[in-house]
Amino acid sequence: MSGSRVYELESCDGSESMTFTVASLLALPELQTVSLTPGVGLDRQITWAHVCELPDPWSWLGQGALVMTTGLAFPAGPDEQCSYFDGLHRAGISAVTFDEQMPAHPLTDEAIEHAKQIGFPILRTAHEVRFVSIAMVVAEALQRQHNTRLREAEQLYGSLLLSELCDGSVPSAPATRLVSTYDLTPPYLLAAASPDEPHLAFDETYAAFNRAGLPVLAAIKDDQLLILIESAGAERVLGTLSGRCGSFGVSAPLYRVDELPSAMRQARSALIRNHQPGSVLRFDEHEPGSLFLPNDPEQLRGIARQVLGPLRTYDEQRGTSLTHTLTVFLEENRSWIRAAERLFVHRQTLIARVSRIEKIINRDLSSMEDTAECWLAIQAAISCGDLDPTPR
What we know:
Blueprint: H1 22-26, E1 33-35, E2 48-51, E3 65-69, H2 78-90, E4 95-99, H3 109-118, E5 122-125, H4 131-167, H5 172-180, E6 188-193, H6 198-212, E7 217-221, E8 224-230, H7 235-245, E9 248-250, H8 260-273, E10 280-282, H9 297-318, H10 322-331, H11 336-343, H12 347-361, H13 368-383
Parallel strand pairs: 2-3, 3-4, 4-5, 9-10
Antiparallel strand pairs: 1-5, 6-8, 6-9, 7-8
Helix pairs in contact: 2-3, 6-7, 9-13, 10-11, 10-12, 10-13, 11-12
């Protein structure tokens, strides 16, 4: 065979196939191989290829093998030929291919029909195609399968890592080392999207960044796609993905991985505020939530903690969601009925919760001054990424 090529084996959806089969072999025109048992055993996986001129290949070769032979030891009579194919089939050998010009004895119609009945594929390869060419194609396909599995495992572990980092459940020092193994260096950006098909968007994200030669970590969390990227040069790839993944919200740049929980809230906040389909909105680009609040994230964080700190600590220690209750109550202009409906609780339950909130934060929510303080604190927490906006 003259020349060479990379054998790209693709599935019907355009993605790289995970297995090399009899059908894969027959689909390669360079190998000039056809089936003498059309439609038989096309899905049988080939895991290696070996030349064997012995009369009993099954004694030496086994599961997944493609036997390549010139036919020198192929038996003469139909019964013996049927027994030959039976032996190959019982050993789990995937297929046999003969050199088209060199069988010692021609294949009988009875043997071919018998192979069809037992589901064993018989192939024939053009004389000018060297068996080593077929063996190399099989070896290359197996290497691609191996590389694909490694890549999928790497993506899986990366997804688990990013999810845990966004939860803040990995200590800072090992987290930094783990992220660096994926070739990501600060400053980072965290992007969030809500695609219709998160798992498809996950695969497309890795494909897009691989094509661009840029490192990335992606995860699906709460039905959202989260993407950790480097701030330099990666946003243009997000722009190409936004048409397929929907709009993106992107955090402010972060320099430490222990900032990822806050970055996730920032990205989600920007996503909620991104009302332009198929666009990318940076957290530090959207307008502040109030004219009376600063733009500096640390100042915002200080304002939020001053009022909401005791309440958030209470929620963390007791597993309650009183901060969310307060947010909804104020968003509904302190309407007991509307707030109770949004929270799916009875009005009396809401009254009891608000009473408890007032005691924890030492504020009176019937007072306009205290209510304004709480509202600004909530907006500050949302603006700095410490609190998720509540969906309506």
